[in-house]
């Protein structure tokens, strides 16, 4: 679902850019553009080169800056970056900071995109920190080429700290805010496993270097470290903020801040088909939650489904045993899952169902039995085994059997009918212990089957628990 309607109300990209105008203005954009069947100018969003040229031309057209984006570095998506900057504008207005605003960007990257947008739009004074030497050099070139040295300063920092080194270097300076877009992944393997292989490929090309995509412990550990360091510098930074790529991590960080009684607020950054989240907190006297409350998409809130898991015979009744039982059920349904966190008596995963393998189980077994009996009468034993496997595969992976001719032993189906282009269900599942009981909690995220599909999976787990 396109999310442009949920963008920040001041985001200029709520209305898509005029590609025909860009092609007429910039020869390099014209070279990558093409006409679709309707006569509309478009580009190949799966081509990294096209994304780089698009971003470069938009920066020139809309902000009058010339930014060189290296081929091996992350291509910043402007609608998302602008959403973040506009949200910080709202926070600064809410705390009555209007002039001479000082900002700190953590991990500024080769484009220094946040300092550049903040300086060009608002004349904010920005310091950008970066651990990668090549990115620092390229960012300095971009800043110099656009005459922004008076507003933007860069600092090379060691990877062992997030804000400590920069603030220790700038001992006499205080900041109105800090911002960062931390790497999502904890390892190369985590990056490779981040997308379900059964899902369709993403619509946009994948860009970025390992330094920009991977950090020890992933973004959750990075943000927790930032929260820890924020205690030390609570008098020198008014508002701490970060972007978050996984909704589950937002929930965990909100719990951390609540446990420490730190005042916070959060928001959603919506653009294209992608949602990211912003988290802000402060150690000062601002009641930031009341000043700028959480902004969510205008949709119904997801109420988690919570169920107390009965004890299993001949098994230890604990979180680990119950989690393993749920995982075995998911495997039997061909539901993909990814472990997100395991701390004490709490186990969290995200799961994705591509096809409906849980509905009409009795009917499917009857159909399978009828087809098998008919085949036994009409086919040789050695051929029957192969046919049964094929039929079983068709039945167990289909959403519904459109037509079964038991007399002839044929299943008449339409290939397109069974083809899945979007996940049926995406959801979080948490197994936890409270008092002497084990519970599981599921929360709907997305999917064409909607919340009703999630309720069906929950009912299947209940029915097959013992």
From TrEMBL:
<dbReference type="Pfam" id="PF05971">
    <property type="entry name" value="Methyltransf_10"/>
</dbReference>
<dbReference type="InterPro" id="IPR010286">
    <property type="entry name" value="METTL16/RlmF"/>
</dbReference>
<dbReference type="InterPro" id="IPR029063">
    <property type="entry name" value="SAM-dependent_MTases_sf"/>
</dbReference>
<protein>
    <recommendedName>
        <fullName>U6 small nuclear RNA (adenine-(43)-N(6))-methyltransferase</fullName>
        <ecNumber>2.1.1.-</ecNumber>
    </recommendedName>
</protein>
<keyword id="KW-0808">Transferase</keyword>
<dbReference type="InterPro" id="IPR017182">
    <property type="entry name" value="METTL16/PsiM"/>
</dbReference>
<keyword id="KW-0949">S-adenosyl-L-methionine</keyword>
<keyword id="KW-0489">Methyltransferase</keyword>
<comment type="similarity">
    <text>Belongs to the methyltransferase superfamily. METTL16/RlmF family.</text>
</comment>
């Amino acid at each position: 679902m396109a999310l442009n309607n949920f963008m920040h109300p001041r985001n200029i990209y709520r209305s898509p850019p005029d590609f025909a105008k860009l092609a007429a203005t910039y020869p390099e954009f014209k070279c990558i553009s093409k006409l679709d069947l309707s006569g509309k100018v478009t580009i190949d969003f799966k081509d990294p080169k096209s994304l780089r040229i698009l971003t470069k031309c938009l920066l020139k057209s809309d902000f009058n800056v010339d930014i060189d984006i290296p081929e091996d570095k992350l291509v910043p998506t402007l609608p998302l970056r602008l959403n973040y900057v506009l949200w910080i504008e709202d926070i600064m207005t809410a705390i009555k900071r209007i002039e001479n605003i000082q900002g700190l960007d953590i991990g500024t990257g080769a484009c220094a995109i946040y300092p550049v947008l903040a300086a060009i739009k608002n004349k904010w004074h920005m310091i950008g920190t970066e651990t990668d030497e090549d990115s620092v050099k390229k960012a300095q070139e971009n800043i110099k080429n656009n005459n922004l040295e008076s507003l933007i300063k860069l600092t090379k920092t060691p990877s062992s700290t997030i804000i400590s080194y920069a603030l220790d270097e700038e001992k006499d300076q205080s900041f109105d805010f800090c911002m960062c877009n931390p790497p999502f992944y904890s390892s190369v393997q985590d990056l490779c496993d981040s997308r379900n292989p059964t899902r369709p490929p993403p619509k946009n090309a994948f860009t970025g270097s390992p330094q920009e995509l991977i950090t020890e412990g992933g973004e959750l550990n990075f943000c927790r470290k930032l929260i820890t360091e924020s205690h030390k510098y609570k008098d020198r930074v008014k508002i701490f903020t970060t972007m978050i790529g996984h909704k589950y991590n937002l929930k965990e960080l909100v719990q951390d801040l609540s446990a420490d009684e730190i005042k916070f607020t959060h928001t959603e950054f919506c653009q294209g088909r992608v949602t990211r989240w912003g988290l802000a907190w402060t150690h000062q006297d601002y009641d930031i939650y009341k000043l700028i409350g959480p902004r969510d998409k205008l949709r119904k809130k997801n109420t988690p489904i919570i169920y107390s898991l009965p004890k299993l015979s001949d098994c230890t009744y604990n979180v680990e045993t119950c989690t393993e039982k749920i995982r075995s059920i998911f495997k039997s349904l061909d539901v993909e899952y990814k472990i997100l966190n395991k701390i004490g008596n709490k186990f969290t995963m995200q799961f994705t169902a591509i096809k409906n393998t849980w509905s009409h189980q009795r009917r499917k077994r009857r159909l399978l039995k009828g087809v098998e009996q008919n085949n036994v009468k009409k086919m040789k034993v050695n051929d029957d085994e192969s046919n049964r496997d094929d039929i079983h595969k068709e039945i167990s992976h289909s959403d519904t059997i459109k037509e079964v001719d038991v007399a002839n032993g044929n299943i008449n189906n339409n290939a397109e009918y069974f083809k899945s282009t979007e996940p049926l269900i995406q959801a979080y599942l948490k197994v936890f212990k409270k008092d002497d009981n084990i519970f599981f909690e599921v929360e709907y995220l997305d999917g064409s089957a909607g919340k009703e599909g999630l309720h069906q999976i929950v009912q299947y787990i209940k029915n097959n628990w013992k």
